[in-house]
Write a structure and sequence with these properties.
CATH topology: Globin-like
Shape: globular
Order of helices and strands: HHHHHHH
Number of domains: 1
CATH class: Mainly Alpha
Radius of gyration: 14 Å
Strand content: under 5%
Helix content: 55-70%
Number of strands: 0
């Protein structure tokens, strides 16, 4: 049997790249999130594309270069509050809208991202 991965169902590399390209300008412009995202946006976009590719069942690009994702551990130096997690998800939802990502795969992908966002929270809202 040949089952499609979420990566393939989303549209593969092209859609992941479009999503990342739409998403990060929103993040950098968001006053709640922008303090967490300093440095080269292109490098952050590259890493996110690699991670989302692997996260959705595509090639293991992230692990091949950086080792196991261990995203919670990698994000511990940053204050990720419930408000920031919600803002991050809102930017992702807007990016999905921008690129026309629709249907059950969008909902499945977004549900998984909501789980990840919840796991990343490491600081209470003040």
């Amino acid at each position: 049997m040949n089952f499609e991965t979420p990566y393939e169902m989303l549209g593969g590399e092209e859609i992941i790249q479009k999503l990342v390209n739409s998403f990060y300008p929103k993040v950098y412009a968001n006053p709640i999130l922008s303090p967490l995202f300093e440095g080269d946006m292109e490098e952050i976009k590259r890493k996110q594309k690699m991670f989302l590719t692997q996260f959705t069942g595509g090639p293991t690009l992230y692990s091949d270069e950086f080792g196991p994702p261990a995203m919670r551990a990698r994000h511990m130096p940053f204050e990720i509050t419930p408000t920031r997690a919600t803002a991050w998800l809102a930017c992702m939802r807007e990016a999905m809208d921008d690129i026309g990502l629709e249907g059950p795969i969008r909902e499945q992908f977004y549900d998984r991202l909501q789980q990840v966002a919840g796991i990343m929270i490491n600081t209470p809202d003040q």
